[in-house]
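Record 1 of the preview.
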Amino acid sequence: MSYKTILVNLTVDANPAPILKLATELAQRFDAHLVGLAAADVPPLVTTGEGLVYEGEVMQIQRTEIEKRLAELRDIFEKLVPGEVSSEWTQYVCAPTRALGLAARSADLVVTDDGGEDVFRAVDIGSLVLGAGRPVLVAAANAEHLVGKTVLVAWKDSREARRALSDSLPFLARAKEVVVATMEGDSGEDVRNSLADAAVFLEQHGIMPQTEVIAGAADGETLLAFARSIHADLIVSGAYGHSRLREWVFGGITRSLTHESGISRLLSN
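->
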């Protein structure tokens, strides 16, 4: 159980060192090939005193600035990744979410930060998880390491949760403690049986988890509070069991997890 190719996203407006150190450690841990990626795009419209217009000269200046920043990030990548780690670099002048989706075709795991509001310069985590077809590890803010000592698996009997459980096996196999937990609001014989089946699945892979039913409201804040109570340094969860529109309107666990910055999260869809 391992990841053989890890794709790490370096956000153009962020300090690349923390997430690059984290991804490099993961590549060493799993004996994986590390692919560094950075991308940004030029907005098609610019604001002038007359409103929003196309302005070729301004767009070319912005493109030149992006290319300069991408070159800087490549230099940092090549300096910080040790020679003994198999690695390569790729860069795009396009939206980061699209670039990661393309590069994810040949990766086992995508590693990124929390992104940002500017879709031309930062990844949209929700869109990435929905479109990449690969597990996405969203690192805690400025985290340089991810030990994965205590891993919380947020369990619900859904396709997304089953996928996340399978996608996270390399982390779970190396964890000191694995807790598979479901919400009290979902409790009942069927849910408890599915929780037991998830534990059996892990046991068949040599992982001996604890199982828990979390008391309280079945929402993201309850899950995060439980994660902090057990000192989890990684949360594994299926993403968007409901539609993304419903998550946006009503809130939901995925939305809470994508906005959490204190704990690393592995999300699958």
